[in-house]
Predict the structure.
Amino acid sequence: MTIKDNIKHFKNLIPEGKCTLIAISKTKTTDEILEAYEAGQRDFGENKVQELTKKFEILPKDIRWHMVGHLQDNKVKYIAPFIYLIHSADSLNLLKEINKQGAKSSRIISCLLQVHIAEEEVKFGFDEDELFSILKSELLQQFENITIKGLMGIATFTDDENKIRNEFRKLKNIRERIFDQFLSKEISMDYLSMGMSGDYAIAVEEGSNMIRIGTAIFGKRNYQ
Ligand SMILES: *Cc1c(COP(=O)(O)O)cnc(C)c1O
């Protein structure tokens, strides 16, 4: 299967308008990305700022770039002028910086709040309690150059389908609670970004409308 075939496969699998396919192109070359682009793919995601900005400069300008990896405050300025959606807003300090850089670029930057749903300690993201206390504080509503568009989560890396399903379900429930209590001009809950190559089928069953697929499109990653 070529990259083109894989894009077509996913486009057939997920009905247009119901779920967005984000092709996660980290470590992949611009030629590989162009192959996906030629198959009609326009949403691409990366997890490192340097790689993202380099690819942005080289590749067609109608690509929508998604930041899906942990983002350091001091690197926000490099992506603020062009980023389409930051999936990995995982702290109040980071959101403050995104807001500041958004103002500098005269943009309102779309963000998803990353929520910690997996078992692993190392994964980034807000805890549920932390998230709701921030929402109640109304601090997010004061960021004029940010719009919160939904939530992102990464499930535990495991073969246990029930566990994965429960984690996705938890994220969906948090989204519904936010929808009920905090929906406003600044906070919509349009997007639920969950599901990767190994677990997207479960994620879609549990209500995901943004899947982030790397390996299943581009093949295994080669880390140097
Ligand atoms: C790498 C990555 C993906 C894609 O992972 P695959 O298993 O290759 O599909 C999705 N989301 C995030 C946050 C990633 O870092």
About this structure: The beta strands are 20-24, 43-46, 64-67, 85-89, 109-115, 146-153, 187-193, 210-213.
